[in-house]
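Complex record, two chains
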Amino acid sequence: MLISMNWISEFVDLSGVDIKDLINRFTLSTAEVEDIYEKGKDIKDVVVGKIVEVNDHPNSKKLHLVKVDIGSEVVECVCGAPNVYVGAVVPFAKLGGRVGDLEIKEVPIAGVISRGMCCSEKELGISDDNSGLMIIEEDYPLGTDIKKFMQLEDIVFEVDNKSLTNRPDLWGHYGIAREIAAILKRPLKPLELADTSVYKDLPSVDVKVEDTDKVYRFSCITMDNITKKKSPVNMRIRLTYCGMRPINLLADLTNYLMMEIGQPMHAYDNRKVKEIRVKTFNEPVEFLTLDGVLRKIDTETLMICNAKEPIGIAGIMGGELSSIADDTTSLLLESANFDATSVRKSAMRLGLRTDASSRYEKTLDPEMTVTAIERFMKLLMDIDPGVKVTSSLTDNYVKHYDKITIDFDKAYIDKYTGIDISSDMMEETLRNLGFEVNRQGDNFSVVVPSWRATKDVTIKADIVEEITRIYGYDNFEIRSTKSLLTPVRHSVERDNEYRIKQLLSTKYDMNEVHSYIWYETKLNKELGIVTEPNIRIINSVTAENDTIRATMIPTLLGFVYKNVDTYPEMGMYEIGRVADGLKEDGLCNERKRLGIVLASKKMSEKDVFFKLKEAIEQVMIDIKNITPVFVENNEINKYNYVHPVNSAGILLKEQEIGYISVLNPKIRNNIDKKLNVVFAEIDIDDMEKVSAVPLKFKEVSKYPGVTVDLSLLVDKSMRYETLAGYINEYPCEYLSKYYLIDIFEDEKLLPGKKSMTVRFEFVSMERTLEGNEIQSMVDGLLASLKDKNIELR
Amino acid sequence: MLENLEKIRQQFQEELKAVNSKDELEKIRVAYLGKKGLVTEALKNLRNLSNEEKKTAGMQVNSLKNEIEAAIVEHQKVIEEKEYQREIENAEKYDFTIPSNREPGTLHPITIVQKKIEDIFKTMGFIIEDGLEIQTEYNNFEAVNIPKNHPARDMQDTYYLENGQLLKTHTSAAQNTIMRKYGPPKKGEPLKVLFPGRCFRNENIDASHENTFFQLEGMMIGEDISISNLIYFMKVLLSEVFERDVKVRLRPGFFPFVEPGFELDINCAICGGSGCPTCKNSGWLELLPCGMIHPNVLAMGGIDPDRYIGFAFGLGLTRLAMMKYNIKDIRLFNSGNLKLLKQFTR
């Protein structure tokens, strides 16, 4: 919103105040100022001139040669305006003067020297009227600088509208002036109003508020004998400076009032509007708004009507047919207060947000409606003294806001602020802001002014804000808290999450990625990935991606696809959320999942698989001190990207935490036939159900151990797990550990068989083992394995 | 006997001269001092001598033995030095400019920035919490004092799900859950929590708009938490985050979940506060919203607003990462584009 300092100074004495400094303090105490414009500085040496002679331009049909009397001399200039005539009094820019970006110099125009310029309103920045020369109607001596009677010089500042959303009282200059008065600790002048009580014996307007839910107050009055059509120049300047387009006197006045006290008003032509009905329709209707658009009005939208038909959309926009016309001399002036939510929702449904509706949305003070009418009348009668009031002030006050009284004491404020603001200062601030203050020592009972009582100030904490913002947060002494030093409870889960990322990125050179919480439907289709139905978003702007993911893998495979042309090897992972269906209570079963994908054109599929398996093992050993177990799991085959043979569930102790799988060749071929892809998904929430095994330190033997490598011939299909199980069955106290070091397969040499070389380590805690002892242990082991049909190769 | 010893000495000295390696040296040691070595033999032969002779000859033999031992040790050093010289002379000169081909893995830029901030807040005693991404209307709106009919709840900004839940629009959605988890703080031990999280806004994306982004929110609740404390914590913490002594400025700001609410500005790093295009000549950059937690929000979180006061603040984590790395296009974060993401090695 644009605020004119000239306007403000009507209500607060700004003498001796550094305006820029004041605007800065306004930002710190009230609302953010986004820009400051210095107006009128670019208008120089423009004076009142009278056209005394008009001649045709020898070289142009459009241009005229004009002689202008500016008191001290008569100047000749070239003028292109269509409305030149002898006797016209116009603003005339002298040589050496300036109009906007234009410096006035002696220049030939179409071959004739021009020594000045007659100006239009647009050129002077008064309005956007560029149809012809501005005609000065007031009587000023020729040669008078126009700045003597036109308030062209002004400082206008732009307040960020977003920072005013909670302050219905700041949507007009008077409210802003009240803030500035409080900041400066200077008095706020009252508004000059007309006295409507003198018309109380006139007949009232026929008003019926049929929908009392959506209306707080509806006030109106009628007037006749309006003769003036154009608003005074200084009013037009203010409207223009504040971003409103001057139209005609009555429309300008309603806009002026809206800009001055924040109350939207509407002027109806009294010839067409004799009575008022405020209601909604049972059936949708069509309505032509004054912007010339025919709109469909639904049954929720509150309408202003006369006896026959709608004449305005309440709080949003009037109608074309009842609006002020050129020949209007009588008006019905509406000043009403409508329900904020109703106006906002109607405006949203209509896609029609106006200056009026955006003010009503803020929950305006209903007390303002009559003030606005009285102010309107005062201004109108000053401009057009012949105006006749034809009705009494008709006021339907349907709903009142409660009067709000807030009790508090200084100790409460001190506790909130952490500093010491004196009771006297609190009282002064609150009074300046319009609060009624009853105070006994440090105990306060304050009444919230009506313009702050619609939603803005309701509780004690709101009072804290009023006092502190005017006190100035810059003036706060800042301190740390008085509190005990206690160690921070740290979150193991959080630490684990970061640790997993670190391991995968630094030990396995993977790249962490982020992706969306929904499936990329198009890409999945392209890759042939089939996902199960899952919970959907009902209003996404990208409607095709409306299904929340139940698994991390499809998106990661999509990322592989997007990068495969650049990178022959990839390792990507993400810790993110999925919705694994719904829980019993109907809420989403949100899970935190780790998805990992490894892809390579260089390594064999098998190597990629075991690299990922190793990574998972390392992660689990690192954060849980548990080696995970990989088991058959048919459950995971429900996903069509899972490999039917080479996929396994992952168990941590007994808890199932996820799975690992080679990418199904069908999907792989859609990405890249030569790319070996393996992925895994781990449910972090399930993983965290398993508590970490504490690390136990063990003494080691002081005596040398002996290692024996045995190549064992087993059936080709035998898994290492089975062999290990057989080894475990053989009791041997000195066997400290054993592990697989090699697998050898050769269909010719070892048909139907394979050789697994296992390294056995024997050691005693008490002594050095003798060679024959070890031999007998190995023999025993081999004998036991022979029972299982396993022999030494 | 004595002549014999002298012969051995001379023979040894001759042979030693020719020795050029440790192996040869060992051979010579065995030839003289080994079990069947010449000196050892000579020692054995002593027993054939008379006591008188034995004494003199014994001394001579021992002296020779010591002499040979010392010479071998000495010669060994010479050989070692020579071998060392030879190894150095023959050493291959490596081309240190040959690159190692291992490409380091990377963390997501959000993770990097988030971790840094979490660590800073931990030093001031903040607990790090987490929240759900799919939230109830209650947690996202009601519990943070955004009632039905509030403009912030208008459909278009929020992703609503079929079951009535929604994708959380701000990290504040976790406030209620966290308050209920920890309960009213003990005397003198304010609750200090930081909760980063991913948020969602239902809008079309372009270089500066994302529908999925990270925020980070913090709050501190206790019996004597004040506006003065809020300014203090913001100033010291943000100084750590930005690695400079930042100046902070509070202005009134309106957010339903705080009262009073503030917009916090920091002095512009580019001009230092004197005014430049980045800060629109104001010298200040709008950084984060903050305020004293609204009594309704505390009450809904099960914390007595007559007894406890708290402050809360929110920070756009994605925006911070963009500032830190000078990222111009917000779509990078969720792109999965490895060409871009592989740069974030720290």
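Note: Residues 605-624 of chain A form the longest helix (20 residues).
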